[in-house]
Amino acid sequence: MMSSDNQLTELINLGAIQQMQGNFDVAEMYYTKASAINEQNVTLLNNRGMLFYQQQNFEEAQAIFNKVIELDDNNATGWLNLANTLVLLNNGEEALNAYKQSLKLRPQQFEAWEGLAKLYMLANDMTSAESCWQRAIDMGPGKPELLLGLAQVYLSGNKFVDALELAQYVLTQNHQNTKALQTAGLAHFMLKNYGLAIQYFRQYLGLIAGDTAVRNHLAVALLQSGDLQAGAAEYETILKFDPENIEVRINTGVLCLSFNRWDDALAHFDHVLQNDPGQNKAKLYRGIALVSLNKKDEARQVFEDLMQDKTGDWAAPAKKQLSLLNNLN
């Protein structure tokens, strides 16, 4: 007959297997049976806490990890799990302490250095973040997520060549690593290597087509390289995913003006103003579209209204457009 300790271990292992496969209800069943044998087993509690963590029930997860620490305050895994949970509960100060406690007990665990690095990035302490990413890489050499974490710090610090080198190294290991493709594209973009940025952004979007932030960078890179039609096409694709993106819709309207697509431009500006009547940039360009459509009286009213806005930056451009309109008559 199996001893209670062996039975406990088997139940925990069976639960862990189901948990890794995403079968959370089955995992909970095994953990409940294990709890009936020894509800204070810290391995069981850590696993069960992670079960709640994976289901985004962070308050319950925190309570369980706190229980782990109460039972064994030298449990490095418990401190790490607690720290990760506290970050998601926006409790940065306690998370910082928990990461440090975990590293004090097990300084070689790269996961804690990684978590600490991310926490420092959230606090915009990039110097500390860089140091922690370096320590994480020392403990987990070659791991792409660590190298790309450091690359993000380099991007934020305008070390674009350094960020690019890390991204390209990761891509030699896996040419479809989306984070590396995005990082390489951003680095080239900031270095004004627009042709190369376009290549990386397109590779990325071939894998994650709905990422509108990356597609916006692609659109800007195309515009900067002089391909206005392709840039406009990317803006229009963004609007299919995010039709209420005001900035992109205004930019699309402005490009339509440059292509003499006056009706399309007007439709974009009207759409913006229907949702945001105070959007003065859209008002100004709407007036320009109306002039091009020979709706001069309506355009004049737009410019005159904008000239009354003394709080923004659009009175002077509106006055200039009104002067140009009057010179047409």
TrEMBL record:
Coiled coil stretches, renumbered: none
Tagged with keyword RNA-binding: no
TPR repeat segments: 42-75, 76-109, 110-143
Domain Cytochrome c-type biogenesis protein H TPR, chain residue ranges per copy: 107-211
Family annotation (InterPro entries): TPR-like_helical_dom_sf, TPR_2, TPR_CcmH_CycH, TPR_rpt
Protein origin, superkingdom: Bacteria
GO CC, any one term: cytoplasm
GO terms classed as biological process: anaphase-promoting complex-dependent catabolic process; cell division; protein ubiquitination
Keywords, in A-Z order: Repeat, TPR repeat
Pfam family, one: TPR_2
PANTHER family reported for this sequence: CELL DIVISION CYCLE 16,23,27, CELL DIVISION CYCLE PROTEIN 27 HOMOLOG
Name the record gives this protein: Tetratricopeptide repeat protein
